[in-house]
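Design review, sub-item: ligand-bound model
Attendees: FS, YL, KQ
YL presented the inputs for the magnesium ion complex:
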Amino acid sequence: TQSTRPQRMLAAVHNNATRGDPRSVVKAIDQFCRQKEWAMNIGDEKGCILDSVVSEVNPAMVLELGTYCGYSTVRIASQLPPHAKIITLEFNPQNAAVARQIIAWAGLGEKIKLIEGSSGDWIPKLKEQFGVDTFDLVFLDHWKDRYLPDTKLMEECGLLRKGSILLADNVICPGTPEYLEYIRNSPRYKSQYFKSHLEYTRVEDGLEKSIFLG
Ligand SMILES: O=C(NCCc1nnc(-c2ccc3[nH]cnc3c2)[nH]1)c1cc(-c2ccc(F)cc2)cc(O)c1O
Ligand SMILES: [Mg+2]
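KQ shared the predicted structure:
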């Protein structure tokens, strides 16, 4: 049967990356996406902005919404301090299966908890199911029309604390207009836009970084 793009991406990781070396996994995926097939990873340009935010926040507890194949999961986890954890949510079981193998190849399985399912179902359960208190960093990279409802849900579930950082991908392309409108006008957030490009293209895109003020 015909392979899927995530499966071909996994094969590129197995063939070109060194097991246990997260940077080589990131490099192999970026090479695959530039030379073979475009895919919706955050990519190398926006990935550097992500890296700088992660190292600045130095989070103990991270939530990622939208694992896809685990590219940004690996980028984030490879920078976490010891004992820090990332919970990542993926909706599509086929993508989750590929992400698990890419995460394993990078040797980061201990730091990453991948959950399959919908953010709307899982966000209200994170405290009771995983003993989460609050998140230091949330990376929003899932369905663009879920950014706003899920941010409100995280507020309601007490998953954000004064100083929690939200970092949102694709605020220009595909775009998250309702989320931007809310987060930039809410007195409860201080936001900053990082202009960049849609992964592996010259199309404008960017990341919105917002601090929850409590
Ligand atoms: O759709 C995207 N990403 C979403 C994947 C996902 N992976 N998991 C989920 C999930 C996870 C829990 C959920 N709970 C409820 N919905 C959920 C959806 N969503 C996306 C699309 C593009 C893109 C740009 C230009 C184009 F021409 C075509 C495409 C670029 C990007 O950087 C993206 O991130
Ligand atoms: Mg994205």
